[in-house]
Design brief:
Helix content: 40-55%
Order of helices and strands: EHHEEEEEEHH
Largest sheet: 4 strands, antiparallel
Structural class: alpha+beta
Number of helices: 4
Strand order of the largest sheet: 1-2-3-4
Strand content: 15-25%
Number of strands: 7
Distance between the termini: 29 Å
């Protein structure tokens, strides 16, 4: 069975931006919620002698995760415009807006499965001009836009999908059909 990829010549993806301080707040509130849940769980189990050690371990583990996510969102791709050759990217570094134009051949794109058993997820990594953008569904990007952008760049650079990428793209299609948001 042959799957034909139909890709448009132009692409314009525009987002209303989630401010950097709101992206930081999102991760910090998630962090506080996780610490609170672990704290309540251990207090209910009356293991008070281990409480400080457990909270310290949870603080270190989740703190590292939150710090890594905050660093990934500091560089934030907002808008992507292309005519299949020339690409214009508008991005934010922290709260400051920047933009540049480049050729599509200067862009590298990767797709990574970040799913866990109970939740399907993936992220797109775009490398251009020594910048690394990580796109995920946490803020303004949705699965349909991320998949479209990945396929668009790969198609116009004439790069074939690997079997692993094809499998992930079909899982994305199935997910989008079930949850069209």
């Amino acid at each position: 069975m042959i799957n034909f990829l139909i890709v448009q010549k132009e692409i314009n993806i525009i987002h209303e931006i989630t401010p950097y301080k709101n992206r930081i707040k999102y991760y910090i509130l998630t962090f506080i919620g996780c610490i609170s849940l672990f704290g309540i769980f251990f207090l209910i189990n009356n293991k008070v002698e281990d409480f400080g050690l457990i909270i310290l371990i949870v603080l270190i583990v989740f703190g590292g995760f939150v710090f890594k996510e905050i660093l990934k969102t500091k560089l934030y791709l907002a808008d992507f415009f292309s005519d299949s050759n020339l690409v214009k990217i508008i991005y934010f570094k922290g709260s400051n807006e920047y933009n540049f134009e480049t050729n599509i051949d200067n862009i590298e794109v990767q797709i990574r499965n970040t799913s866990v058993k109970s939740n399907f997820n993936f992220e797109i990594i775009i490398l251009v001009n020594d910048l690394k953008f990580t796109l995920n569904k946490d803020f303004d990007w949705n699965f349909t836009e991320m998949k479209l952008l990945f396929e668009y760049i790969r198609f116009h650079k004439n790069i074939l999908f690997t079997e692993k990428e094809k499998d992930l793209l079909s899982r994305i299609d199935n997910y989008i059909e079930k949850v069209p948001f």
